[in-house]
């Protein structure tokens, strides 16, 4: 077995920090979802629909779920008056998903609540560090 290199140690530390951060963020998102009688996945759907108008298959792909599972999530959103289905202008057989006015309002409330809960953590960093972290995290996601 070879000794650990500095690169191995750095990689391990980054992976550990990312996992610990994701645990913290998921717990916070779950808390916010529960405050509004939503599952974490329903919160994700609202967040996605806040900025996009995907087809069901696109939403399923983005969530990493089967189309049938997402269909049920969308139906629950429709029943709550948060999500609407609209005929696609590109394909008459397809349906685009979007938020209703109530859905947009709730998505805004959820985003503000998440920001409020994350602020104490984010504010531990100086503005330049916040910008650098944002740049690095964005690079990881691209």
Structural topology:
Blueprint: H1 6-35, H2 40-51, H3 56-63, H4 67-79, E1 83-87, E2 95-99, H5 101-122, H6 127-141
Antiparallel strand pairs: 1-2
Helix pairs in contact: 1-5, 2-5, 3-4
Attribute tags:
single chain, 142 residues, mainly alpha, two-stranded antiparallel sheet, 7% strand, globular
Global morphology: globular
Strand content: 5-15%
Rg over CA atoms, rounded to whole Å, is: 19 Å
Q: How far is the first residue's CA from the last residue's CA?
A: 34 Å
* Strand line-up in the sheet with most strands: 1-2
Written account of the structure:
- The protein is mainly alpha-helical and 142 residues long.
- It has six helices and two strands, in the order ααααββαα.
- It has helices at residues 6-35, 40-51, 56-63, 67-79, 101-122, 127-141, and strands spanning 83-87, 95-99.
- A two-stranded antiparallel sheet has the order 1-2.
- A hairpin with a 7-residue loop joins strand 1 and strand 2 (95-99).
- Helix 2 packs across helix 5 (101-122) and helix 3 crosses helix 4 (67-79).
- The radius of gyration is 19 Å and the shape is globular.
- The two termini are 34 Å apart.
- The model has no long low-confidence stretch (mean pLDDT 94).
